[in-house]
Design goal:
3 helices; 178 residues; binds magnesium ion; alpha/beta; Rossmann fold; 7-stranded mixed beta sheet; 11 strands; binds guanosine-5'-monophosphate; 4-stranded antiparallel beta sheet; globular; 37% strand
């Protein structure tokens, strides 16, 4: 589909499924290169990364534990700037290599908050893997180890990403048609 309607907004096709899956494969190869034999824990952030982590783990060539976390900050098209913990990092992160898996890093406020939370668990290492990254909005200075695609400061939906809870289930990614 070239255009979709989500609630009151129209979105147009931005990243088709084939390109998404090729990107997932590249990220999975990078993780396999770096973590095979190391027994890391993947911590995907609900809800947006549910499709990404499912595809990512099926392309990796090593087994890993998966433990979802949930921190929220977005309402509609805007980040509230205030991050709330709904489901945090498990105790078993202590002493382990932990990979946080996100759908998108925008201002970086949410990720910085999560990194600080995870540090309290004293993991052996923290790595960040995000599918999308908006460098133009990024206000923090932590390192992002694995980036699928850097994008402009536009609002996207699909492949797990929502607009007010809708639009997540599309296999392609769509951009707001202003
Ligand atoms: P940050 O704290 O980095 O500003 O925002 C991170 C969170 O905001 C992401 O995990 C995601 O839930 C949401 N977000 C940021 N940009 C977008 C976007 O373009 N589309 C959607 N659907 N969510 C976004
Ligand atoms: Mg998210």
């Amino acid at each position: 589909m070239e255009k979709i309607q989500v609630l009151d907004k129209t979105f147009r096709l931005y990243m088709p499924e084939a390109e998404i899956q090729a990107t997932v494969k590249r990220l999975a190869d990078e993780l396999s290169r770096d973590f095979k034999g190391k027994d890391p824990i993947l911590c995907p952030v609900l809800t947006g990364s549910y499709l990404f982590v499912a595809d990512l783990t099926r392309q990796m060539d090593f087994d890993a534990q998966v433990s979802f976390v949930r921190y929220t900050s977005y309402e509609g098209l805007e980040s509230t700037g205030e991050v709330t913990k709904v489901m945090g990092f498990p105790d078993r992160c202590t002493g382990r290599d932990v990979i946080i898996v996100e759908d998108i890093v925008d201002s970086g406020i949410s990720m910085e908050f999560m990194i600080n939370e995870l540090k309290k668990r004293e993991p052996a290492s923290i790595s960040i893997c995000t599918f999308f990254f908006k460098p133009g909005n990024f206000k923090k200075d932590f390192k992002i180890d694995y980036v699928g695609k850097s994008i402009a400061n536009d609002f996207i939906v699909g492949y797990g990403l929502d607009y007010s809870g809708q639009g997540r289930t599309y296999r392609d990614v769509y951009i707001l048609d202003r």
